[in-house]
Amino acid sequence: MKVMKFGGTSVGTAARFKDVARLITDGDTNIVVLSAMSGTTNSLVEISDYLAKGNVTGARETLSKLEEKYNATVTELFDSLDSEAEAQVRSKVREQLDVVRAMEPSTFDEAAARSVLARGEMMSTAMMHGYLRACGVDARMLPALDFMRTDAYGEPDTRYLREALAQSMSDAGDTDIYITQGFICRNADGEIDNLKRGGSDYTASLIGAAINASEIQIWTDIDGMHNNDPRFVEHTSPVDSLHFEEAAELAYFGAKILHPTCVLPAKLANIPVRLLNTMCPEASGTTIYNASPTRSIKAIAAKDNITAIKIKSGRMLLAYGFLRKVFEIFEEHRTPIDMITTSEVGVSVTVDDDRSLPAILDELKKFGTVTVDRDMVIICVVGDMEWTNCGFEADVVNALRDVPVRMISYGGSNYNISLLVRREDKIKALNLLSDYLFNKSDR
C-alpha cells in the first residue's frame, strides 16, 4: 500500500484534479492525502483576520469570492459527467463554507481560526471523492479528524493515530482508493487543529509509518529536489537519490519542495519517500531513503532572513558554564539556534526568528560585548561530508573565495557544511558553488 500526497498546486484547477485522479487509480491500493486548492489557505487566513477584527463585511466578501472559485471549479470538473454527483459535491462545499459564514466576531478566537483553516482540505477531498465516485471508482473517505491527533505537547500522538486509522479503514471497508485530508488534526482537547504550514507532507509521512506503507510519494509541481535553487541558478537538475539526513538538511535550510518534519517518521519506519511531479509524472524524481554514503556532494540550498549574533567576552576563557548560560537565554525566549561557532573569547550564533531579539540581546549583554549582523543567508552544501573524505570542505571554501563568509559550520553533521553570507551575496554564492562543485569549472 502506498501513500500519495498532492499539494495545493496539484489540485489547483479542475484539470489538475483530473490529472491526480488518473495518477491515483494506478491499480495499487493507495491512501491519498490532499492539500487545499492553491490559494485557499491564504483566503481563509484573510477571512479569519477580518473576523478577528470585527469586519464581517470583509469576511463575507472574501468568502463569496472563494465560493465562486469553488463553484466554477466544480462545474468544470464534472463537465456534465453526473449532474446529481455534481450537486452533491457543490452542497458539501457549501456546507463547509456555511460553517465559516455562521461565525461571529464576538466569539471568534484561535480555536475558531483553526477551524476556519481546516475547511480548505475538507473541500478539496469532498471534490476528489465525489469526482472519483462519479467516474465509477470505489473511493472511500477517511476523515483525518477521526484519526489524526496531537498530544498535550502539540506532537503527533502516534499510538492513537495507528489504532484510530486502522479502525477508520476497517469502518470504510476494503477498497483500492482511500481519500483523506492533509494538514488538519485534532489536538489533545479534541479541538480542530493543524500540523502547521507544510503539514500535509507530515500527514503523509505519519500515515505511511502508521500503516507500514511500501512507499510515500510527495507530488508537487517540480520534478524532484534539485541540486540548487532553480529560481536563482540556471541549469539545475534533480537529484536522483538522497539519504534521509541529506533531505532533512536541505528541507530545513531552504529546499521548499519538502517540509522538514516529513522526513523523520519515514526515516524511523525505513519507508522510502519519492518526490514526484504531477505535471510530468514520467520523470523519475528524487528518492529519499537510508542509502549508503556516495562520497559526493549532492545539492545546495539557502535559508534567508538570518540574524547573526556574536558575544565576545574575556571572561569566557576557561569559564565552564558560559555556553550553558548563553543557550539558556535562547531557550527561555523559545528561539532556536541554526548555526554556532566558538573561539576562546567569543561565540557566534544565528537565528531565523528575531521576534524576541531585543530581550535576548539585553540579557546577553550581561556576559560580554554583543554585535548583530542582520539580513544574512545560510548557504547549506549537502552530501557525504564524513570528515575522512578529503577535499570536500576545501572545494566548498575555494568556490567562495571571492565571497565574504561571516561563519562556517562543519563537523556537526556528516551531511552538511553551512556558510553564512550577506543577503546581497546569496545569488553569487549559489552560482559559484554550482559552477565549481557540479560543473567543475574554475578549478
Oligomer, anyone?
single chain
Give the helix tally.
Answer: 13
Major β-sheet profile = 8 strands, mixed
In round numbers, the mean pLDDT is 92
Structural class: alpha/beta
Brief summary of the model shown:
This protein is 39% helix and 21% strand. The protein has 443 residues and is α/β, with parallel strands linked by helices.
Write up this protein.
With 443 residues, the chain is of the alpha/beta class. It contains 13 helices and 16 strands. The chain has helices at 14-24, 40-52, 56-78, 83-101, 110-134, 158-172, 199-211, 244-252, 263-269, 322-332, 357-364, 392-399, 426-437, and strands spanning 2-6, 30-34, 139-141, 177-181, 184-186, 192-194, 215-220, 241-243, 273-277, 286-289, 297-312, 340-342, 346-351, 369-383, 407-410, 416-422. The chain has an eight-stranded mixed beta sheet, sandwiched between helices. The protein has a six-stranded antiparallel beta sheet with strand order 12-13-11-14-16-15. Strands 5-6 form a two-stranded antiparallel sheet. Helix 7 runs parallel beside helix 9 (263-269) and helix 12 crosses helix 13 (426-437). It is globular.
Describe the secondary-structure layout.
Layout: E1 2-6, H1 14-24, E2 30-34, H2 40-52, H3 56-78, H4 83-101, H5 110-134, E3 139-141, H6 158-172, E4 177-181, E5 184-186, E6 192-194, H7 199-211, E7 215-220, E8 241-243, H8 244-252, H9 263-269, E9 273-277, E10 286-289, E11 297-312, H10 322-332, E12 340-342, E13 346-351, H11 357-364, E14 369-383, H12 392-399, E15 407-410, E16 416-422, H13 426-437
Parallel strand pairs: 1-2, 1-7, 2-4, 3-4, 7-9, 8-10
Antiparallel strand pairs: 5-6, 9-10, 11-13, 11-14, 12-13, 14-16, 15-16
Helix pairs in contact: 1-3, 2-3, 2-5, 3-4, 4-5, 6-7, 7-9, 12-13
